[in-house]
Design brief:
Layout lengths: L15 H11 E9 L7 E12 L3 H11 L3 E6 L4 E6 L2 H14 L6 H16 L6 H11 L8 H11 L7 H11 E10 L4 E12 L3 H11 L3 E3 L8 H5 L4 E6 L5
Length: 253
């Protein structure tokens, strides 16, 4: 008999590390700058934290929203039936989200975007975004985020970041809720046998492959695809697939 570890939780019972795992998987930090001639600088800046999820799993977004008691849930993409939990008030971000993320750090290279995002929020709190100098600084910060970061910057960061941080079951549970997929394969069939295989797969951009290795070691099971060699190097990773996976398919595991 399989031992039941977790029970259904109420919003106020969400574990902070579960939320961190979920943000590491599904969260994004964005700085949007748009033209606005009504402002002294002729520009408007909006900093937002988004957490996305399919509408079928909207309850987790509602639970996180209840935990932070700020932000809104709205349609992200009608074609893909995705919703997003969005926090765009820089005061809510400064007073609620930043203290939370400072206390419970993100583990993936998404932490780099958070640091840049936090710097922009601090400029807004100090009203620097109302000056040309401050706006130019925020533009510079925005130009370094998300897809604008290089593979090597993300890989080198997580290589040292994970040395100083540990993962927990709650973080893994949140990360799997965001990035995990459960599969059941039915393969070749003969007169007497059917090839069957169940697996849990967790995908991640290859620049963050070391987080998958961290999960594998924590759970003490699974394999990485492509295989992670002992003498891992940036040169080998950047030439390989852009997506890596932790696959757990042994029935006993």
């Amino acid at each position: 008999m399989v031992k039941k570890i977790y029970t259904t939780f109420k919003p106020q019972e969400l574990n902070p590390k579960y939320i961190i795992g979920f943000i590491d998987a599904e969260g994004s930090f964005n700085i949007t700058i748009s033209k606005d001639n009504k402002r002294l600088t002729n520009y408007k800046v909006v900093c937002e934290l988004h957490i996305t999820q399919n509408i079928n799993s909207i309850k987790v977004l509602k639970n996180i929203k209840d935990y932070f008691n700020c932000g809104v849930i709205k349609v992200d993409n009608k074609k893909t039936n995705t919703m997003k939990y969005q926090i765009s008030s820089y005061k809510d971000i400064a007073n609620i989200i930043i203290p939370f993320l400072d206390k419970y750090p993100l583990l993936t290279s998404k932490y780099l975007n958070y640091k840049t995002f936090k710097e922009a929020i601090n400029l807004m709190i100090d009203k620097k975004h109302l000056t040309l100098e401050g706006m130019n600084k925020i533009k510079e910060l925005a130009s370094k985020m998300n897809t604008k970061r290089s593979f090597s910057e993300k890989f080198n960061f997580i290589h040292t970041h994970l040395i100083n941080h540990s993962i927990s079951l709650d973080w893994i549970r949140g990360f799997i809720d965001g990035e995990g997929c459960f599969y059941f394969y039915i393969g070749k069939q003969t007169n007497t046998t059917i090839q069957l295989q169940a697996s849990l797969e967790i995908a991640q951009n290859t620049h963050d492959v070391l987080i998958l290795e961290k999960i594998r070691k924590f759970l003490n099971c699974g394999r990485l695809k492509p295989k992670l060699i002992n003498s891992i190097s940036f040169e080998l990773l950047i030439k390989g697939p852009s997506i890596s996976r932790l696959i757990i398919s042994n029935p006993n595991d």
